[in-house]
Design goal:
heterodimer; A: 464 residues; alpha+beta; twelve-stranded mixed sheet; elongated; B: 219 residues; alpha/beta; Rossmann fold; five-stranded parallel sheet; four-stranded antiparallel sheet; 9 strands
Chain lengths: 464, 219
């Protein structure tokens, strides 16, 4: 008869107490597993959102604010930069877009804007996408941009897909694509028209004269773009108050709002829509993916642009990493610490349970000793019992945690776009097994020492 | 088989003084011999059995069992020696409640040097009339049956010496003789020396050798 069996019989002998202590361990481990997997997903999602572009160029100011505005559609809007600065990143021809298999929306259509000469930084750039911000629709940010945004991967190997409809076309100025969450929460459907609000929040005025038509609804991506409204930048420029007065720029004051001029001359005339002249345009930011064949392009551009008094360039992954480490990282550590404490408390529960049973079992231990069991043998039996309870509960908790993750997968897909299933694992989980063995050995040590020190003769002579 | 030479034992009292319990100049039991040890309550019978079994250490003296002075052995070796060579039948049976009859017998083998011989455990239980109770837990057995399991467990490792501490004290009168017969018969068959402690004159009268502790103990 092995020591494992002796320990197992002892666990069976105290079935209720054993199951309750194992259950507490199971709940603790389930919590750890759930937190580990979900936090890992949050971290992955958080950093993945910033992976699509190497650099974000915007007005001088806070780097974090620029990233939050452009990548996360959060924070107060930043200032604009001149459109001709954006043109420095454009190639003379439409951008070489990566239209890998699976990307939807088709190639960029014929551009309505005149083709520009090759930009100064174009050779270092693969894709440069302009963002015009400052409008909103209900609780969601409106982004004026180009259709190219949806023709490239938003994270390595991940491409936008349309749940319904298609990408907007450059020549159709008043088309829009909406994120999955926007569609869900606003009820906008294909073919619906909406009017955006100038500004963020309820105090802005609605662009009543011009509306955009929803031509595409994105599938959930797990990125902040799920909660953004993307409109054709050409249409965005034609909204009331979005044209820029070049005279203002000449004063060097970029903080003043755009000129409230009469746009009727740019609006459709005789069925045609004329684009806003370049000298009346600005962009809030330019999202840049540098040439992958030029490994130092991002660094060089970053340094060069930041010497420029007009704009700043930030590496979004670095900014987000710093943000994550300073805020979310601490939150993760705190959550993990709390859940680990729960497991430790469960371990203490096992110790208390076994230790409390020692007075009842002292005679059994004495009998084993009288039958020839060494002190170390009875000590091992108690430790095996502690380890068995801990690992049994831990295994159940592992299954329970992953089952909970499987059950939550629907919600996770809905809110983050990340699929999590029963078999979603993170490497840290591999530490659970040795961790539990160490914890249960420590938990079992006190009762095991009590067994070790049992006075056999006295215990045998005590009344049963 | 068993030789006690100048064995003494005392316990410390709360006032710090030592209370002498045993002082045995010499005590000898032959291999295969069956001896009854009688004595008044509190005279040190169980203490003597514990010393012979190596469960307790004497203050001084030699406890030679099968030629080995177990009093001089380190505790771990004493434990192993006890598992291999000494069987013990307790007054209160001391079966482990979570284990079946068969497992209780095999438990006795688990701590010895040899492998666990399941077939021998079954044979022993059959010999004590419990072939049909192998998987019964102690609380599913009668008092007499529990003591028979205890006897089978004590003999599991083919000991050279069996110590029985009032084995019939908690057994109903109808089963007492059966237990005594079982112990004696099995010890004879396996040529095991037996020291049986009892208060019962009817039991003692069946043995050729009856020792009184008061006569052995020179306190």
């Amino acid at each position: 008869m092995s020591l494992f069996k002796i320990a197992w019989r002892s666990i069976q002998q105290r079935a209720l107490s054993s199951w309750l202590t194992a259950l507490s361990m199971a709940l603790g481990v389930a919590l750890v597993v759930t937190v580990l997997v979900i936090m890992n997903t949050v971290e992955e999602t958080f950093t993945r959102n910033a992976q699509g572009f190497d650099l974000i160029v915007g007005a001088k100011g806070g780097a974090l604010q620029l990233v939050l505005n452009t990548v996360y559609h959060l924070s107060t809007p930043v200032e604009n930069i001149p459109y001709d600065f954006y043109l420095q990143f454009k190639r003379g021809t439409p951008p070489q877009v990566i239209n890998a298999a699976g990307a939807l929306g088709g190639a960029a259509g014929a551009t309505a804007t005149p083709r520009q000469p090759r930009g100064r930084f174009a050779s270092a750039v693969e894709v440069a996408i302009p963002y015009c911000l400052g409008d909103s629709y209900q609780d969601f940010r409106v982004v004026g941009t180009e259709p190219t945004l949806f023709e490239i991967d938003y994270a390595p190997g991940r491409y936008y897909r349309f749940a319904e409809g298609r990408n907007f076309k450059t020549e159709n100025f008043f088309e829009a694509v909406i994120g999955a969450r926007v569609a869900r929460e606003t009820g906008l459907k294909l073919g619906d028209k909406f009017n955006s609000t100038h500004g963020i929040g309820p105090e802005g005025h609605v662009h009543k004269d011009t509306s955009f038509e929803v031509v595409g609804i994105l599938e959930p991506t797990g990125t902040p773009n799920d909660r953004a409204v993307f409109v054709n930048i050409e249409g965005f420029y034609l909204l009331d108050g979005h044209a820029f007065d070049p005279e203002i720029r000449e004063t060097g004051n970029l903080t003043q709002p755009g000129l409230q001029e009469d746009l009727s001359s740019y609006l459709p005339q005789g069925g045609e829509v004329a684009p806003l002249p370049i000298d009346k345009r600005e962009v809030t930011a330019v999202l840049i993916r540098t040439d992958p064949s030029n490994p130092i392009a991002a660094i060089s551009l970053h340094k060069y642009i930041n010497k420029n008094p007009t704009a700043q360039a930030v590496a979004p992954t670095r900014v987000i990493f710093q943000l994550f480490e300073s805020i979310v990282g601490n939150l993760r550590a705190l959550l993990l610490l709390l859940t680990c404490l729960i497991v430790v408390v469960a371990g203490i529960g096992i110790m208390v349970s076994i230790y409390n049973s020692m007075s009842d079992r002292r005679r059994d231990i004495a009998v084993m000793r009288a039958l020839g069991a060494r002190r170390s043998t009875v000590m091992t039996v108690i430790l095996l019992e502690s380890i068995g309870l801990s690992l049994g509960g831990g295994l159940a908790g592992f299954v329970l945690g992953h089952a909970a993750i499987g059950l939550l997968s629907g919600l996770m897909v809905q809110y983050t776009g990340v699929y999590l299933g029963f078999f979603s694992f993170v490497p840290w989980e591999a530490l659970l097994l040795p961790g539990l063995v160490v914890l249960s050995t420590l938990a079992g040590y006190l009762p095991a020492m009590s067994a070790y020190k049992t006075d056999v003769s006295r215990s045998l002579q005590a009344n049963p | 088989m068993l030789d006690l030479i100048q064995v003494s034992k005392s316990y410390s009292q709360p006032n710090g003084e030592r209370l002498p319990i045993l002082n045995i100049p010499r005590y000898h039991v032959e291999a295969g011999e069956q001896v009854v040890l009688m004595g008044r309550s509190g005279s040190g019978k169980t203490t003597l059995l514990h010393i012979i079994a190596g469960i307790s250490q004497p203050d001084r003296g030699n406890v030679n069992v099968a030629g080995v002075n177990i009093a001089a052995l380190p505790e771990a070796q004493r434990d192993r020696f006890r598992a291999d060579h000494i069987g013990y039948v307790f007054q209160t049976f001391n079966l482990l409640p979570g284990f079946s009859a068969l497992e209780n017998v095999m438990l006795g083998m688990a701590f010895a040097g040899g492998s666990v011989d399941r077939q021998r455990a079954i044979n022993l239980l059959e010999r004590v009339g419990l072939g049909g109770r192998l998987t019964h837990k102690p609380n599913q057995l009668s008092v007499g049956e529990q003591q028979r399991v205890s006897v089978a467990r004590a003999l599991a490792n083919r000991p050279r010496l069996l110590l029985a501490d009032e084995p019939t004290a908690n057994v109903d009168p109808g089963n007492q003789q059966q237990i005594i017969d079982l112990i004696r018969q099995t010890c004879e068959e396996e040529r095991v020396a037996l020291i049986l402690v009892t208060h019962t004159p009817e039991v003692a009268s069946q043995f050729a050798r009856v020792d009184r502790l008061e006569e052995i103990n020179q306190l």
